[in-house]
Specification:
Shape of chain A: elongated
Strand content of chain A: under 5%
Distance between the termini of chain A: 53 Å
Largest interface: A-B, 29 and 29 residues
Radius of gyration of chain A: 19 Å
Largest sheet of chain A: none
Oligomer: homodimer
Number of strands of chain A: 0
Chain lengths: ~190, ~190
């Protein structure tokens, strides 16, 4: 990797950090491209050369922070993997990432591109991880070969985001245990009947 | 019931209808109390005598439209009842009620009272209906006596609102069938194991 590439990547990371700092401080509607430039100590020319509009800049920052491929935990059992993965997800949803995401919902309700970007990063980009988890579980004989992760993923994502959004209950260990043992494993096991 | 009471109740209904028409047309932020008065052909004095602020007026309209007690369907089987209830819920979420609710999310993210009101009307006020459904199912021997509706209700509500909000899939018959047979009945049955 050349020095130039590293610098560009560092600059992108700094600009994305500035976007999230400002989103947390002033919200999407009041955040300006110029304020991002100032916060990231970048020139306005750099910002406008990289991103033509605020939605584009915010979507790139979302991709950068949330859109990565995640490796599934590997605890040796499906129950252990689900528990570990959900604990990580609940901790993230309860913390700064969850606050940023909930804060962006307002803007997303008026901007289909932004909503699709958020959905892609928070949901679609994580799907392969759940498929990989179930492939390993099938190898251990815990679920039938070819068990789909579709329903598992949709249910756990809906449950976590619903609690986070409505503040209707804690995303704690008791919730994770109840979701794994009371919902997810019964859903997966009924395919074996 | 006296004539005065009927008139007041009719007037409240007309004012609530005006609130939802305007919410659909201009959104929460741009809706004014005066516009509601004009639309409902009510005097401003009537509006301000009944409701001291816009949040209070909108919350009362939400209670009026969404907060009612619902009778559970009674088809003779738990599967039939769940299917009927979810079909009704999905039809409402796909139609005008769903659009109003999604439209109010933006305002609710900045107003805890409004968010709590929406949650109370869309979720808490429906809980007894699911409990009643399970009591009847227990009498028929379909689930154990004392089976709680908590998990059932939380899962189905999260699944419907998540699809509606992210436009991530249709709220159609295939979804209802998959949710009833693939998720809700397995959750309820695992208590019998």
């Amino acid at each position: 990797m050349s020095t130039t590439t590293t610098t560009r990547s560092d600059r992108r990371a700094a600009i994305c950090d500035a976007v999230f700092e400002l989103l947390g401080e002033v919200g999407y509607d009041r955040m300006s491209m110029d304020a991002v430039a100032a916060r990231a100590r970048a020139s306005k020319a750099t910002i406008y050369r990289g991103w033509s509009s605020k939605p584009e800049l915010v979507m790139d920052a979302i991709e950068h922070r949330f859109g990565g491929v995640t490796q599934p935990p590997d605890t040796g059992s499906l129950r252990g993997d689900l528990y570990a993965q959900l604990s990580t997800l609940c901790a993230a949803a309860s913390g700064e990432d969850g606050a940023i995401f909930t804060g962006l919902l307002t803007a997303a309700m008026h901007n289909t591109d932004l909503a699709q970007c958020m959905y892609r990063c928070a949901y679609e980009s994580k799907h392969d991880m759940y498929e990989a988890m179930l492939i390993r579980a099938a190898r251990r004989g815990e679920v039938p070969e070819g068990t789909s992760a579709d329903l598992l993923h949709e249910v756990l994502h809906a449950m976590v985001t619903s609690r986070r959004m409505w503040q209707s209950g804690p995303l704690d260990e008791a919730f994770v245990t109840r979701l794994v043992d009371g919902v997810l494993l019964p859903i997966l096991r009924q395919g074996q009947g």
